[in-house]
Amino acid sequence: MAKSKTRRQRSYDHRLRELVRVTGDVNAVAEFGVPRSTAAGWLRGQPGRVVTGDVLDMDPARLQAEVLKLRQRIRRLGAVIRLLLALVRTLGGHLDQIRLPEGATRARVLRAIGCAERVLTLQGALRVLRLSPSRYHQWRQAKRPCGLDDQASCPRSTPTRLTAEEVLTIKTMVMSSEYRHVSTGRLALLAQRLGQVFAAPATWYKLVRERGWRRPRMRVHPQRPKEGVRATEPDELWHIDTTVIRLIDGTKVYLHAVLDNFSRRILAWRVTERFEFATTVAILQEAARGAVSAEDLPR
């Protein structure tokens, strides 16, 4: 028995269907291979409901005008957003450090986040508001019976949790110029001694790294003097100098000398093959015996 072949149904462009309905002539699309019966069915049938957009009916001129108008609006909105972000950051708007009262204030923020989700992602909207995802989901849950509706009844519900006041204290001490010469680890120990914050140095390093706090780096020590030690009279200050001299045969000798700081006079010197403390003591004794007093210097 021969296997029957199924006929594949042809598909036509929707614009050919609209042409037949507008002209009312079934022969208008005959040259494109559309049967008269199919064209007659298009005339008898009602157009089905389709999903479309108003942009598809616009001509190129209207579309270009709409694009220019939208570009101008985007530039204005971008400028407004930059101004608002600069204002929020200048005023220190961080929702992770303050509490919002339950009611219209929090509901207004939640509505704004819901509207922003149509364009931005939830993570992007929370990043702009500096709001953690955990607190956002807490706000969307049922009301809390305690007074602190955005946190637990006790801010220190866990031993390792820091309150907002403690975090602010850490930030103040880290960025203060008063403690610029103290390392971050020692600063954590100092805060414990002062009874302000009891947190491990690792916690301080973590907060500094995550929040981008920059410590002030200013010079604490004075500039080095360009002029060395100067004596006001002979035999007030002596200098002991040892110079290593390499000879032609490769051996070394050591030149020991005692100099007076006031007159720059060599009081005693000796050349030895070895560096020994006994040589230093010997030239000091020799310099002491031949020291010149201030009265013996020429006027």
Count of helical stretches: 10
Number of strands: 3
The figure for the number of domains is 5
**Global mean pLDDT:** 78
Which structural category fits the helices and strands? mainly alpha
User: What is the helix fraction of residues, given as a range?
Assistant: 40-55%
Radius of gyration: 45 Å
Strand and helix map with partners:
Blueprint: H1 14-23, H2 36-44, H3 60-90, H4 104-116, H5 122-129, H6 133-140, H7 164-175, H8 184-194, H9 201-211, E1 238-246, E2 252-260, E3 266-272, H10 277-289
Helix pairs in contact: 8-9
Can you offer a commentary on this structure?
The protein has 299 residues and is mostly helical. The protein folds into five domains: 14-44, no CATH class; 63-92; 93-149, no CATH class; 164-211; 238-293, no CATH class. 42% of the residues lie in helices and 8% in strands. It has helices spanning 14-23, 36-44, 60-90, 104-116, 122-129, 133-140, 164-175, 184-194, 201-211, 277-289, and strands spanning 238-246, 252-260, 266-272. Strands 1-2-3 form a three-stranded antiparallel β-sheet, with helices on one face. A hairpin with a 5-residue loop joins strand 2 and strand 3 (266-272). Helix 8 packs across helix 9 (201-211). The longest helix is centred in the N-terminal third of the chain and has 31 residues, at 60-90.
Summarize the structure in short.
The chain is mainly α.
